[in-house]
Amino acid sequence: MGVLNRLFGRKDRDALTPLYNAVVLEARRPDWYLAGQVPDTLDGRFDMVAAVLSLVLLRLEEEGDSGRAPSAYLTEIFVEDMDGQLRERGIGDIVVGKHIGRMMGALGGRLGALREAFAGGDLEGAIDRNIYRGAVPGEVARASVRDGLIGLRKRLAAMPASDLVGGRWPA
Fold it and tell me: Domain count of the chain?
């Protein structure tokens, strides 16, 4: 049981499960992998979940204090999901923690890269490093991912945070 669960109770955290499920569904949308040519591999799927989750966390960050608890709960759900995924693949207790630590570092890196990119930095560079891992399939594919992330960010910004936290996903 996570620290947040012990402090705040599982009910509050569980209320964010529909939002996390929507994040995963968005990250698994075929267009990312077809038009965007994101590798449909374990790493590629992780990269898309991390990118979409990062956009949601950035949206919640805009809410200030009221976005902190939902962000923390959502991150905890992500950790639990990744832990379960690793265990399903046969990773044992001894090394799961190291893998989770690397995944959390990767999520934090993507969060920082996207925060910086949307603040006027280099979005294409962030995509190249964090989604394609340096192996960009071409400008058309990169543009598809770039435009998809920009569009998702705009849709997230246009909806009330309370709707997002309530599990509604922008159309």
Answer: 1
User: What are the angstrom distances between the C-alpha of 42 and each of 28, 38, 56, 152, 156?
Assistant: 11, 11, 21, 22, 26
Q: What is the pLDDT of residues 56-102, one digit of tens each?
A: 999 999 999 999 999 999 999 998 887 767 667 766 666 766 767 78
Residues across the chain = 171
- Retrieve residue 148's tokens: 């998809």
Inside any domain, residue 164 = no
| Token pair for 130 | 């964090």
Residues above pLDDT 90, as percent of the chain: 71
- For residues 69 and 51, give the distance between their C-alpha atoms in angstroms, rounded to a whole number: 20
**Using an 8 Å Cβ cutoff, are 103 and 76 in contact?**
no
114 found inside a domain: yes
Q: How far is CA 21 from CA 15, 48, 81, 85, 128, in A?
A: 11, 13, 10, 14, 26
Q: Are 34 and 44 in contact (CB under 8 A)?
A: no
**171: DSSP letter:** -
**In terms of residue numbers, what domain contains 14?**
3-159
DSSP SS3 for 136: coil
Kindly state whether residue 170 falls inside one of the protein's structural domains.
no
| Residue 89 resides in a domain | yes
